[in-house]
Amino acid sequence: MWQESVNVLVYEWLKMPQGEKLSDALNFFIYDTVKILFLLTTIIYAVTLLRSYFSTEKVREYLSKKHEYTGNVLAALFGIITPFCSCSAIPLFLGFLQARIPLGVTFSYLISAPLNNEIAIAMLLTMFGWKVAALYIGFGLLVAIIGGIVIGRMGLEKEILIEVKPIEGEIHAENQVIAFKTRLSDAWDYTFDILRKIWLYILIGVGAGAFIHGYVPTEFITSIAGADNPFAVPLATLLGVPMYSNAAGVMPLIEVLTSKGMLMGTALSFMMAITALSLPEAMILKRIMSLKLIAIFFGTVTLGIMGVGYLFNAIL
Amino acid sequence: MKIEILGTGCAKCKALEEATKQAVALSGKFAQIEKVEDIMKIMEYNVISTPGLVIDGKVVSTGKLISVAEIVDLIKAH
């Protein structure tokens, strides 16, 4: 229905000839941006509202009573439903250790939380549908669980630069009572705030996507990101790291690239690298961790993400 | 009354500090406002999601930027 409205606008009202590259690109651009913005608003709003019921303090209380392995799995799962901002990575990290949560479990959370941020999930659902979103979340959890266990086994506690005094006795988080009406309006404020930050990236991303859609030949993309190139996965992962926080702008590009022959595993690696590995977060963590620990953290996650890409490309 | 804003320097923490200043002015009460950036002090309050708001040593909000009106309510409820 929406496609027909855009057709009328572009081909009849603007009188642009159908079947020409420029008018098709414009059609695609208008169709995509409005669809994306509408769905994004809805999904981010729903996710934010749901998350207002889970506080990080509560998660900490719960995890402090769990052992390793179970803890790794639960920490990764909590990463999906709790809000996370890389700006509060330090208090969170130290707070977990303070509550005697093992280092590996803490890392499982620290890998899963940014990977499953609301923008990435909303963009995935919007552009690729629930199947790809579920695959992304599922493999993301796997990377977080295994990554956390591996780091936990390495005995790296001495690589933390700040001495953490464990809290004595039981950990207890205060219940914050929030009225449902307040939750609704808070979630809306937050959603609006996010949209204000990312709308331009989406426009640029979709614009570039429309350009590729209309002008770049499929053979070109297949030769770089398709099955012919065995290094597509590591290349995509490394390219993803500096693109942090631009998930909103990059996802529309990936959608077009996959429709033109980029393999889904390569696309998944690219998306995960964008969200999970961020240089600003590494800079923040440098205040409390040795470079060695940060390197091991990033290295483990990178290997995990590449593994997901290759595995997926091999299965499909 | 002493109000503390816990935050390691993120954008939301600065915004909360501004909102708190306005709220104190609106509430008509006398309060000392202090920004706590030292991570060890923040940890002592058991706050792990910043920004946090503390009134006379009691944590009243964590992990989000609350509005001026909400802070006024918290000050009055105290």
Provide structural commentary:
The complex is a heterodimer of chains A (316) and B (78). Chain A is mostly helical and 316 residues long. Chain A has one domain (2-315). Chain A is 74% helix and 0% strand. Chain A has helices spanning 2-13, 21-51, 56-63, 70-81, 89-98, 103-115, 118-153, 180-215, 218-225, 232-240, 247-259, 264-276, 279-285, 291-315. The longest helix of chain A is centred in the middle third of the chain and has 36 residues, at 118-153. Chain A is globular. The two termini of chain A are 32 Å apart. With 78 residues, chain B is of the alpha+beta class. Chain B has a single domain, classed as Glutaredoxin (3-Layer(aba) Sandwich). In chain B, 42% of the residues lie in helices and 24% in strands. Chain B is built from 3 helices and 4 strands, in the order βαβαββα. In chain B, strand 1 (2-6), helix 1 and strand 2 (32-36) form a beta-alpha-beta unit. In chain B, helix 1 crosses helix 3 (68-77). The radius of gyration of chain B is 11 Å and the shape is globular. The mean pLDDT of chain B is 88.
Whole-number radius of gyration of chain B? 11 Å
CA-CA gap between termini of chain A: 32 Å
Number of helices of chain A: 14
Major sheet size, sense and barrel closure of chain A: none
Mean pLDDT over all positions of chain A: 87
CATH topology of chain B: Glutaredoxin
Helix content of chain B: 40-55%
The termini of chain B sit apart by: 9 Å
Number of strands of chain B: 4
